[in-house]
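Next comes one such specimen:
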Amino acid sequence: MTMVIPDIQDWAGLDADARADALARPALDQSGLADQVASILAGVREGGDQALLDYTERFDGVRPAALRVPAETLANAADAVSPSLLVAIDRAMARITAFHDAGRPRALAMDTEDGLRCEARYAPIEPVGLYVPGGSAPLISTVMMLGIPARLAGCSQVVLCTPPGPDGEIDAAILATAHRCGIDTVIRAGGSQAIAAMAFGTASVPACAKLFGPGNAWVTEAKRQAAATPGGAAQDMPAGPSEVLVIADDGADPVAVAWDLLSQAEHGPDSQALLFSDSRDLLVAVRKVLPELASQLPRADVLARSLAHARFLLVADLDQAITLSNRYAPEHLIINTRDANERVDGVTAAGSVFLGPWTPESLGDYCSGTNHVLPTYGHARAFSGLSVRDFMRRMTVQRATPQGLGTAGPDAVTLAAAEGLDAHRMAVAYRLASLP
């Protein structure tokens, strides 16, 4: 497939429509998707395990002997994984655990008045469902990114679904990582049908309160529909195709920048890679080397399609680059500039930020410690990357003594009267009248 790389655009010379197009994401073709996903969800709700197996055979071309992976298989999976990979998994898990544990929410208790105690308590969501996409390689990192915060949150009931391979089994590295994360319910199923099973439950798959994890358009739509269905499971965040935006100055290495762009563009044909720079020479150099590097990769056919959505934008200065980045709100933002540590203070909308020439986005995908499950498609304006807090419920508690009621109660009476809610008012006024 011929690789067409878009031209460099000068922001100063673009009119309003051209500027909007320069920051536009690829349009998603989802014609008929909602109805097809709704049919699958209904099928699994009605048909349970049998429907889940039927859909797995239909979409993945294999019918597993059983949906749930036996406990013994999970426990022994590490024996089939290379020692070097296990070491890398353990080291990555240690960093991810340390970072996520440090950000774990803590309980709060305080007196807002003498005799009026308010608390915030956190409890794990139970059960939770984790989705790990399939594909040409096992997504070991996604197991860690989902399983570690679930464990730190104290979730005791964790279900993991992932598509089986051609042999009907799940890659040993996925199973070994799940076992290391304390997950004992692993299901051989993927796609919309797996989301349906976790959202509504089957004989083999417990119904979950909330679902987590990335996926294709079918998975994303299934999560959305399940969350909108009474009795269905909540979803972690809205999502779309993966994306990266690189801000670089004339000191950046063009080849390193190109690899950063390619590392996200290779996810899928709808993925987007953008480069903003105040150096035309850098833009030219990166644009020139991209096809050569992309042609060396196994996913060159995917890159030929996704790079058609790439953007190379010449900006007046790096302040403008940051402003435009905030407008775009990328999933991943790389600031490869001399003053990256200072530039990050201006970032207000991004899923995860990577600073300087030695911080490729791939570190965050695998092992730096942060989470790679991030809001995409502009949702970074309002949503955050996955953390321990997402696996917990926050519950407030309050207790008033007669003194506390006497101090705060008159305010409640006044506010309830202003809102015209007399039962609210009387619930307080009656007690106030009874105070000694």
In short: The CA atoms of residues 8 and 312 lie 5 Å apart. The longest helix spans residues 33-60.
